[in-house]
Automatic annotation (TrEMBL):
<feature type="domain" description="DUF4468">
    <location>
        <begin position="32"/>
        <end position="113"/>
    </location>
</feature>
<dbReference type="Pfam" id="PF14730">
    <property type="entry name" value="DUF4468"/>
</dbReference>
<protein>
    <recommendedName>
        <fullName>DUF4468 domain-containing protein</fullName>
    </recommendedName>
</protein>
<dbReference type="InterPro" id="IPR027823">
    <property type="entry name" value="DUF4468"/>
</dbReference>
């Protein structure tokens, strides 16, 4: 019993110590761009695989494809994700642009925004209470300016670009 009670208090303390790894001496950009050369693949196949990658990787109900134009080779979408900094939860959103010209792909991640959604001690609506009209308090997204949060966003952008590159290299052999 004592062990259960002590775990009840120790686990939140340990979880609240988790921090985003970043180097404070680096100015993390609010845009990430990568260009891939896919020499063995025609434009139509690149477009279809890019669309498939987008849908399979960003399956949140809020993440959406805004434009998907096969003729011009554009896929533009808004992605929603979440992250934890110390004991605070944030939701982030950013734009992904995929442009296809010939057998080249330019992927651009940009426009990062964030909003505070709560802590390990409770969600924002339970902490902030209700608004005057009886609705839960819901903050708006704001432009991401924290270098620490931009570091996490850049890490995720690079990871997504690597995932895209690996996905494009796989063969559809069925």
């Amino acid at each position: 019993m004592k062990r259960s009670i002590s775990l009840f208090f120790i686990v939140p303390i340990i979880v609240s110590c988790v921090q985003i790894p970043y180097d404070p001496d680096i100015d993390y950009p609010d845009k990430y761009e990568v260009i891939l050369e896919l020499s063995n693949m025609p434009k139509n196949e690149i477009f279809l695989k890019a669309n498939k990658w987008f849908i399979s990787n960003f399956s949140s109900e809020n993440s959406i494809i805004l434009i998907s134009d096969k003729e011009y080779g554009y896929i533009i979408g808004t992605i929603f994700d979440s992250f934890v900094d110390v004991n605070t939860f944030y939701q982030m959103k950013f734009d992904v642009n995929i442009e296809i010209k010939g057998n080249r792909v330019r992927m651009t991640f940009e426009n990062p925004h964030e909003k505070y959604t709560g802590t390990i001690y409770g969600t924002i609506s339970t902490m902030m209470g209700e608004t005057d009209d009886g609705n839960d308090y819901k903050p708006d997204f704001r432009r991401m300016t924290s270098n620490k949060h931009l570091a996490e966003t850049n890490r995720r952008w690079r990871k997504n670009a690597e995932s895209f590159n690996l996905f494009m290299a796989t063969e559809d052999d069925w």
